[in-house]
Amino acid sequence: MTDAAGYLAGLALLVGAGFALVGAIGVLRFPDALTRMHAASKAGALGSGFCLAAVALHGGAFDVATRAIAAIVFFLVTAPISAHLVARATLKAGYPAILGHDAMATNREDFPANEPSPGEDKAGG
What we know:
It comes from Oharaeibacter diazotrophicus. Keywords: Membrane, Transmembrane, Transmembrane helix. The chain crosses the membrane at residues 6-31, 43-62, 68-87. This is Multicomponent Na+:H+ antiporter subunit G. The structure is a single chain. The protein contains 3 helices and no strands. It is mostly helical. The protein has one domain. The longest helix has 32 residues, at 62-93. The termini are far apart.
């Protein structure tokens, strides 16, 4: 392994650890389940991707790099899908979203779209 590959692997590892740290802080600091899920899935996928890129650079062997690249592709494909499923399950379970309204509730029977708030009457006022 050359010095340049070692330095790039170290840099990729630091960047990956930084993304993982930012994702962990986001999970602790964000106010609702949807934003926490977003922080965990996006920063976690990028953090693990950079760490696996460091493994591919540092490993030096073709089989190690191939497995690391395959794992990066797997993370980048499955993280958005799992985040979407967790968000749907969170909304179906009834957790409130701070977003102001439920965008999925407009045309669905299982999400009541136009329920009044606790302080409102049925006429909307």
